[in-house]
Amino acid sequence: MSSRALLLVNRHARQGQKGLSEAIEYLKTLGFDLIEQSTEDPKHLAEVILRYQHQVDLVIIGGGDGTLNAAVDALVDTQLPLGILPLGTANDLARTLKIPNSLSEACKIIAYRNLRRIDLGWVNGKHFFNVASLGLSVKITQLLTKEAKRRWGIFAYAATALQVIWEARPFTAEILINGESVRVKTVQIAVGNGRYYGGGMAVADDAAIDDQRLDLYSLEMKHWWQIILLLPALRQGRHIHWESVRSLQGQEIEVYTRKPRPINTDGEITTYTPAHFRVIPKAVAVLVPPEIRS
Q: Which PANTHER family does its entry note (predicted)?
């Protein structure tokens, strides 16, 4: 692999503006020949990648999970390897891949050039790295402002989650998985491809981003305070063992609701129910630490 790279940084990411100049300095010192592009709107990332696909050998993206999600479809189309600079608030994909938040260390990992092919989730034509969900997480996304994330970081997720949990109301859904139909009354359905989401919560305690399966959980609590009790278990993915949490696994999943409900993919609302999910094995190559294990 040569050292010609397309560097894309979301200036609105929590550390985007500050991180851009630092990243350029680190990467040039490590021998990279950079085409530097920054954006005020992550939605433009895909078209930039497609524009430069024949001029570079890899894409380096600085931002959070929403920024990476905006670029994922173009990464699939071009099959360019991905280097990650964790400059966002949650950085859950970086956490899953054990890429540290230190910008200098993240640059060294890219320079080491250890490639790992990872799975992607897919829902209604949109790829995602971490988790797609409906219910509580969508309301958190709708209420969580960029200003709050920039000012309070990961604590903004916790404060907004508590507000949403207080107002939580269950909805009914039908889940089709492994040839069976399951009807649920739930406050959240999450379908995970990776391990971490939502600022460090684990979708399941044994989830991996290359296990070629989707992990679904449904929170079927009757009272809002039960969700509060569940929060510590969510951090380790142990919630799937609770009686009030339904846990299912499969390669394809369909979810139907009485009326269309928005779906959050990697922190961005991108589609609505009815939803058809599937896992795309080994869909993209990512530069990761050499000691990484599945």
A: SPHINGOSINE KINASE, SPHINGOSINE KINASE RELATED PROTEIN
Give the pLDDT confidence of 34-72 residue by residue, as tens digits.
998 876 777 889 999 999 999 999 999 998 898 999 999
φ/ψ bin of 79: left (φ > 0), alpha (ψ from -120 to 50), beta (otherwise): left
Mean per-residue pLDDT, 21-33: 89
Which residues have C-beta within 8 Å of that of residue 62, sequence separation ≥ 6? 7, 8, 9, 10, 13, 16, 19, 20, 23, 85, 87
The pLDDT value recorded for residue 20 is 76
Strand partners, 255: 175, 275
HSE-CB for 59 with a 13 A CA cutoff:
32
Give residue for tokens 């305070």.
225
Between CA 248 and CA 46 the distance in angstroms is: 33
3-class DSSP assignment, residue 52:
helix
Query: Which tens digits make up the pLDDT trace of 61-107?
Result: 998 898 999 999 999 999 999 999 998 878 999 999 999 989 999 99
Q: Which residues contact 145 (CB under 8 A, 6 or more apart)?
A: none
CATH number for 4-113: choose from 3.20.20.380, 3.40.50.2300, 3.30.565.10, 3.40.50.10330. Answer: 3.40.50.10330
Distance in angstroms between the alpha carbons of the first and the last residue of the chain: 23
What does the pLDDT read at residue 238? Answer: 80
Whether residue 1 contacts residue 81, with contact meaning beta carbons closer than 8 Å, is answered with yes
Is 126-280 a CATH 2.60.200.40 domain? yes
